[in-house]
Amino acid sequence: TQLLEQSPQFLSIQEGENLTVYCNSSSVFSSLQWYRQEPGEGPVLLVTVVTGGEVKKLKRLTFQFGDARKDSSLHITAAQPGDTGLYLCAPHSAGNNRKLIWGLGTSLAVNP
Amino acid sequence: NAGVMQNPRHLVRRRGQEARLRCSPMKGHSHVYWYRQLPEEGLKFMVYLQKENIIDESGMPKERFSAEFPKEGPSILRIQQVVRGDSAAYFCASSPPGIADTQYFGPGTRLTVL
To answer: Which residues of chain A make contact with B47, given a CB cutoff of 8 A?
Structure first.
């Protein structure tokens, strides 16, 4: 069984602060997806990273895939209340029959 | 280009009734996945289907649950003789052929069993 750990589990910050959330495993992945889920809605795909060391930016969000493709981080600059939500990382292992692995996510609250 | 559609968004059933959840994938997508999410828990994979084929049903309960993705029409997740423990949010996702990992989710169906 592949284990996936996301940290922190909960994070409450003030508007304008920076934050980083992490996604870690001992397994090597072929790719990794980050999603954001708001209450009562389905997860929304933010980004896919594929190459070890890859960095992708989406406005104030910066995603990094670890060099060994075992971990990833999401950094948010100058957080806004609209960033509030559950951030899920979902890596994919080659040969895992297209199944993504899901952690419990990081629940972020950005207070005005 | 419409996203993944699920209906109904909310479904209330009494114990012993049947629940039918429908999912229309994004245009051009031929792979469908069903997940269940309980409060304070993560997404749990249930089943992966292609048109007219069940590829992986390792996450499906052995009894009362079934899924199909016919040649025409939406994918259906069917729960027979529902029990209170079936109350959850059920999400469908789809992905295009040839891309194994990028899945796009629908808004979910919230099933409540009274």
So the answer is: none
Predicted confidence pLDDT, tens digits, chain A (112 residues): 557 899 999 999 999 999 999 999 988 888 899 999 998 899 999 999 999 999 999 999 999 999 999 999 999 999 999 999 999 999 887 665 667 888 889 999 999 9
> Measured between CB atoms, does A41 come within 8 Å of chain B?
yes
Q: B34 - beta bridge partners?
A: B47, B92
User: Residue B11 is encoded by which pair of tokens?
Assistant: 């479904």
Tell me if chain B has a CB within 8 Å of the CB of A22: no
In the DSSP assignment, the letter for residue B51 is: T
Q: Are A99 and A1 in contact (CB under 8 A)?
A: no
Amino acid code (one letter) for A93: S
d(CA A46, CA B39): 22
Residue type, B41: E
Separation CA A50–CA A64 (nearest Å): 10
